[in-house]
Amino acid sequence: MKNKETVILIIVLVALIIISGGILGYRFFREYKNNEETANMNNNQEQKNEDEPLIVEENQVEIFKGNSRPIAVMIDNHTGAWPQGGLNKAYIVYEIIVEGGETRLMALFKDVQLEKIGPVRSSRHYFLDYALENDAIYVHFGWSPQAESDIKSYSINNINGITESSSSFWRTKDKSSPHNVATSTEKIIQIAERKGYKTTSNKESVLNYIADEIELENGINATDIIIPHSTSQKVEYKYNAETKRYTRYARNKLQTDWTTGEEITTKNIIITLCDNYTLQDAENKGRQGLYNIGTFKGYYITNGKAIEIRCTKNSRTEQTIYKDLEGNEINVNDGNTFIHICPKDANIQIN
User: Does the CA dihedral 332-338-339-341 come out positive or negative?
Assistant: First the structure.
């Protein structure tokens, strides 16, 4: 009886050993196949990656990107307002004549944070044309009668600093009134949101920026540029070949930043030659108007060269189009731009 039980036990143990061996063998085989399949997939992917061309991202324009809505700020350009704050961070600065032979600036900002912009000064109606073509929130401190009327007629999203708190538009102690009002991008956005203005925009840039460096091969030398807006306001730009930028002077004085003390420089200069005239308004202060609708001669200047262009603005709200003499829209270097609008008979000197 014992021998029979021993035989049965031996048979069972042998069966268990055979079954266990089979299971282990199956698991080993599956693991081997899985590893082989994984290796083949990796090899195939590597071969596929080798066969596909590398995708290299093109250079991106930095001066005008994102969907933040531009902010246009009126900047005082009286000598008592110098130095001004924020001009180096503006993507475009317009300079146009106002009363008394002075000029005023309108600086456009996009996707920048500045703690001090200014000095902020009052609106003139023809600056609105350039705020409109840039779809900008228009910031000023007071207005002329014509500007007030046009802001209302065109329903322009404007911020008048006179009506805002002294924490949003404040007077500094290092300059004298009326040349000492400052604000910041943070305060402007807060006010815009409170007023229900949109703070994003999909409008394309007025200028056709190109990320790759543009050289005006057929241009004339332009290392020293003199732009007389009037007998009293003469602007000069001097080219630095190392930085490939122009340093700004006004009335023979180097222009610097109010906060940082840095020199004011620009990558591009555009000049539009169209005449101004004296308004006959009730206040009789010699305020100006501008014949800026139509096609006018001008210049585009960058990287030490200048070409003659034509500047066309078909209405107050339409964007200005800048073309070369062959009728092609000009490409503009990726960088900030000063746009000067001055009389047709201005003695522009480009050397």
Answer: negative
The topology under which CATH files domain 71-350 is YerB-like fold (3.50.90)
| Contact criterion met (CB below 8 Å) for 263 and 255 | yes
Phi and psi at 50, nearest 5°, equal -70, -35
**Cα angle, residue 233 at apex, residues 144 and 281 outer, rounded to 5°:** 25
Give the pLDDT score at 117.
98
Extract the tokens encoding 56. Answer: 């290299």
Beta bridge partners of 254: 249
Q: How far apart are CA 160 and CA 267, in angstroms?
A: 31
Instruction: Classify 255 in phi/psi space as left (phi over 0), alpha (psi -120 to 50) or beta.
Output: beta
Mean pLDDT of 329-336: 98
Cα separation of 336 and 87, whole Å? 9
pLDDT at position 58: 67
**Residue in the structure block whose two tokens are 């070369």:** 324
pLDDT at 160: 98
Q: Which of 167, 171, 174 is nearest to 83 (CA)?
A: 174
Collect all residues with Cβ–Cβ distance below 8 Å to 345 and sequence separation of at least 6: none
